[in-house]
Amino acid sequence: MPATDLPLLIDAARMAGRVATSFVGPTAARWDKPDDAGPVTEADLAVNDLLLSNLRSARPNYGWLSEETEDTTERLSQDTVFIVDPIDGTRSFVEGGRTWAISIAVAHKGLVTAAAIYLPRRDKMYGAGLGLGATLNGSLLSVAKTPDRAKVLAARPNLDERHWPGGVPPVDRHYRPSLAYRLSLVGEGRFDGMLTLRPSWEWDIAAGALIVSEAGGQITDRTGTALRFNNPHPTLNGVVAGSGALHADLVGRLGTA
Fold this sequence. Notes:
- The protein contains 6 helices and 16 strands.
- It has 2 domains: 2-140, 2-Layer Sandwich (Fructose-1,6-Bisphosphatase, Chain A, domain 1); 151-254, D-Maltodextrin-Binding Protein, domain 2.
- The two termini are 33 Å apart.
- It is an alpha+beta fold.
- The chain is globular and about 50 Å long.
- The chain has a 7-stranded mixed sheet, with helices on both faces.
């Protein structure tokens, strides 16, 4: 399954990139979602429509979970689902930035088996298949060997001492707008780890989770529990990713394992 699904995801991500970049970020029609759920643009919806049509035509028996499609219980009866974020990092897109990504994954019985993350403005195509390794533009990836002081991608509130009964980890904090890109950068070895402690949507995490694990890293929720996807409420209890040693240290300091 990963060997046949991965080329499909990569081709779809490239097509979606052409659609997304046909819109000019700052001038694309934009509005805010209800309940403070963030911005959405006409580009998000156009990419979602393209992926929904192309992917489900190719795999009609797969379910569908996307940030920009109203969720239903239908996917819960299907063993295999697409998990999609049409544009992860919409704020960067709106600002005319380059740090936004198209994120597509396939999950089978809760486990991600194929993934593609594409940053059209940076010409970066990440891909991974279960048991096949992770790549960037066709070159194999490997997570970094953690140095004495790790570089960790995280929003500032995640390092507030109230979260860390075992002590705030001595790391250098960095940030990128897209969760999918943050995970890809860990898989690429450019950063040592990534964490987000608040509940996280599956479509932000699914593809990047496979890229990290296939690059030799560890990724779990904040308690050290393995990630499972296609949940009735499609969220995860935070995410911690990195090399084995760094991951173990971060989860241990959180004190919830």
